[in-house]
């Protein structure tokens, strides 16, 4: 996700807060801080690609999202 805005968000995968087995490099304890405009890695399924539902819960105002990529 390319985003910014100095806000925090919670990352939910299939209805559950992400844990250490599937979190991306920019996520800690199921949360991410979007600071400067940058590319953020939210999820790492470690090669286990299936159908999933990803939810990004923005926890405060000011979020700016620009592009969402997969792969």
Q: How is this structure best described in words?
A:
This protein is mainly beta and 71 residues long. Helix content is 0%, strand content 38%. It is built from no helices and seven strands. The strands form two sheets. Strands 2, 3, 4 and 6 form a four-stranded antiparallel beta sheet that branches. The chain has a three-stranded antiparallel beta sheet with strand order 5-1-7, with no helix packed on it. The radius of gyration is 12 Å and the shape is globular. The mean pLDDT is 92.
Offer a concise description of the structure:
By secondary structure, the chain is mainly beta.
List the helices and strands and how they pair.
Blueprint (H helix, E strand, L loop, with lengths): L1 E3 L2 E7 L2 E2 L13 E4 L3 E2 L14 E5 L5 E4 L4
Antiparallel strand pairs: 1-5, 1-7, 2-3, 2-4, 2-6
* Sheet with the most strands, sense and barrel status: 4 strands, antiparallel
Q: Helical content, roughly?
A: under 10%
Uncertain residue ranges? none
Mean pLDDT: 92
Q: Count of DSSP helices?
A: 0
- The structural class is mainly beta
- Cα-atom Rg, whole angstroms? 12 Å
Strand content: 35-45%
Shape: globular
- Give the distance, in angstroms, between the N- and C-terminal Cα atoms: 11 Å
Number of strands: 7
> Topology as H/E string?
EEEEEEE
Tags for this model:
single chain, 71 residues, mainly beta, four-stranded antiparallel beta sheet, three-stranded antiparallel beta sheet, 7 strands, globular
């Amino acid at each position: 996700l390319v985003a910014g805005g100095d806000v925090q968000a919670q990352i939910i995968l299939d209805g559950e807060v992400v844990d250490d087995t599937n979190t991306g490099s920019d996520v800690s304890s199921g949360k991410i801080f979007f600071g400067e405009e940058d590319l953020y890695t939210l999820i790492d399924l470690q090669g286990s690609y299936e159908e999933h539902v990803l939810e990004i819960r923005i926890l405060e105002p000011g979020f700016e999202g620009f592009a969402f990529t997969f792969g």
